[in-house]
Specification:
350 residues; Rossmann fold; 2 domains; binds N-carbamoyl-L-aspartate
Length: 350
């Protein structure tokens, strides 16, 4: 016999084809239905990414009053089934900077708590007038489903352990600002000869995955670093240009960009880690940075856990670009929101 609680849980997660999929497992995805959607980084050609970067710079520099006319009175829903500070706030501020009206629906204060499914929630938002939906969801593939059932442009704000395309784009804007100040333009060879190391909980990180799918397309070498439990050898199969270096100091020594990740406690599912051992091997300290990567730029998508994956001194230090990433989040998301609402089904040019 199914209990009421089980029925509610099943309804919330329908269709049942949307499990919290295992990390690195294949997720059944397809090209977006709507040309304004960005569900994964593979949806965008390099030309489109170049255009998004250019729009991000243009909109950031534009007079705020003028900018606020661009999407005046257009309606955007933010649908968040997981907690978020940077992504949610920057998407909201980006939409508002363009003059759009935004509404936030979160799993903790809506009928989602009562068992409403993703499909019904999406259809409800569309009936309320939403013209685009920004979705964060714990299940891999959820944005593809939402887009298909609503026909609206959907921007993936993080789906489970799968993808976080807007984060990869803001990381790219940050990297370009570090390596070629003054120019955000890029092509397939822009990151030739550049090594980006990503260290930490790669296994559960949608940020790592989207960066692994994006950066090699510009010529970068992505070096993954972490213990076997958080970085299985199969990670390199995600795409070309990806290597594993288990020795953190060696990884640091060859990196121009050092990206650190937190351990995703909420997704560990019983995995036990010896944190002292982890700190000994993988914590980014001022001493390590000075000895092995004194010129590298430090990125971290946040939230940072001071004293675990990096020390407070390093987070606040001169090599840290962590707050630049946050600011770049607003710039990139303005461009993505504008694209979502202006791309036409009859042939998108952006
Ligand atoms: C990341 C996320 O939610 O995937 N944060 C973010 O969006 N800036 C990384 C994380 O939660 O560790």
């Amino acid at each position: 016999m199914t209990t009421l609680r089980q029925s509610i849980q099943a309804s919330r997660n329908r269709p049942d084809a949307l499990p919290v999929s295992a990390p690195f497992s294949a997720v059944a995805t397809h090209a977006p239905v709507h040309p304004g959607s960005v569900l994964g980084v593979a949806d965008l050609t390099l030309e489109q990414i170049d255009h998004i970067l250019a729009r991000a710079s243009f909109l950031t520099a534009e007079d705020p009053l003028q900018r606020a006319h661009r999407l005046a009175k257009r309606k955007i829903a933010l649908l968040f089934y997981e907690s978020s500070t940077r992504t949610r706030t920057s998407f909201e501020l980006a939409a508002k900077a363009l003059g759009a009206d935004t509404t936030l629906v979160s799993n903790l204060s809506s009928s989602i708590e009562k068992g409403e499914s993703l499909k019904d929630t999406g259809l409800t938002l569309r009936a309320l007038g939403a013209e685009a939906i920004l979705l964060r969801h714990p299940n891999s593939g959820a944005p593809w489903l939402l887009e298909q059932v609503t026909g609206l442009p959907v921007l993936n704000a993080g789906d489970g352990m799968h993808e976080h395309p807007s984060q990869a784009l803001l990381d790219l804007r940050t990297i370009l600002a570090c390596l070629q100040p003054g120019s955000s333009s890029m092509h397939a060879r822009t990151l030739d000869g550049v090594t980006v190391s990503i260290t930490g909980d790669i296994l559960h990180s949608r940020v790592a995955r989207s960066n692994m799918l994006l950066l090699p397309r510009l010529g970068a070498r992505v070096l993954l670093c972490g213990p076997e439990a958080l970085l299985p050898a199969v990670a390199t199969r995600i795409g070309p240009g990806i290597e594993i270096e288990r020795d953190f100091e060696r990884a640091l020594a060859s990196s121009q960009i050092v990206m650190m990740l937190r351990i995703q406690a909420e997704r560990l599912a019983g995995l036990q880690l010896d944190l002292d051992e982890y700190r000994n091997s993988y914590q980014l300290t001022a001493e390590r940075l000075a000895a092995f990567a004194p010129k590298a730029h430090l990125l971290h998508p946040g939230p940072i856990i001071r004293g675990l994956e990096l020390t407070a001194e390093v987070a606040d230090g001169p090599q840290s670009r962590i707050l630049d990433q946050v600011s770049n989040g607003v710039a990139i998301r303005m461009a993505l929101v504008e694209r979502a609402l202006t791309a036409s089904r009859s042939g998108v040019t952006q």
